[in-house]
UniProtKB/TrEMBL annotation:
PROSITE patterns (UniProt xref): FKBP_PPIASE
This protein's name: peptidylprolyl isomerase
GO cellular component assignments: chloroplast
Pfam families named in the record: FKBP_C
Keywords of this entry: Isomerase, Membrane, Rotamase, Transmembrane, Transmembrane helix
A GO molecular function held by the record: peptidyl-prolyl cis-trans isomerase activity
Matching InterPro entries: Chloro_FKBP-type_PPIase, PPIase_dom_sf, PPIase_FKBP_dom
Segments traversing the membrane: 17-35
Reaction equation(s) it catalyzes: [protein]-peptidylproline (omega=180) = [protein]-peptidylproline (omega=0)
EC number, as in UniProt: 5.2.1.8
PPIase FKBP-type domain: residues covered: 82-176
Top-level taxon: Eukaryota
Length: 180
């Protein structure tokens, strides 16, 4: 006879020990869920408490030519390849100030997978985000060779001209492990 349940452990415990066995297994599962929620709340609280604003911020230039200035150093998780990230960002054309993307205006964060350049998240942005922590905010200047290159690209609020340096005001609001 086939078991009525797809949970082999619950079936075994209930048949072996009756309702008490099934309730014991339910307790084990509940403990796992509650402990995971407590762990998540602790991580969020620690990230918020460890986030610090930067006074007298200095511009950093990487070997690739990317330039950034930290406005706030996050206290949370560091992005890893494949992690899901949520960010607020305002992208403008350096020199003209033309806004090509503004998630703060629409109040809709951008969700993306770290390590996979797509849309406004070019190689330069991925490089900048890679050294941030959840809760951090920085101004990033992405040169054309790390950005959109010699292509004209249409984003949500405007067009990035070919060969343009793009200035991002980037705030990393969430770093999380992707669902399995």
């Amino acid at each position: 006879r086939r078991a009525d349940s797809t949970d082999a452990v619950a079936t075994f415990l209930t048949r072996r020990f009756g309702i008490a066995g099934g309730l014991a297994w339910l307790g084990v599962l509940t403990f796992g869920v509650v402990s995971e929620q407590l762990k998540t709340r602790r991580e969020v609280r620690e990230a918020r408490e460890n986030t610090k604003d930067v006074a007298n911020a200095k511009e950093v230039t990487t070997a690739s030519g990317l330039r950034y200035t930290d406005l706030r150093v996050g206290g949370g998780e560091v992005p890893r390849n494949g992690y899901l990230l949520a960010a607020n960002l305002v992208a403008t054309i350096d020199g003209t100030g033309d806004v090509v993307l503004d998630t703060r205006r629409t109040n809709r964060q951008v969700i993306f997978t770290f390590g996979k350049p797509q849309g406004p998240f070019t190689r330069g942005v991925m490089e900048a985000v890679g050294s941030m922590r959840q809760g951090g905010r920085r101004i990033v200047l992405v040169p054309p060779e790390l950005g959109f290159g010699d292509e004209e690209v249409r984003l949500q609020d405007g067009t990035v001209p070919a060969g343009a340096t793009v200035r991002y005001d980037l705030e990393l609001t969430r770093v999380s492990v992707p669902p399995s």
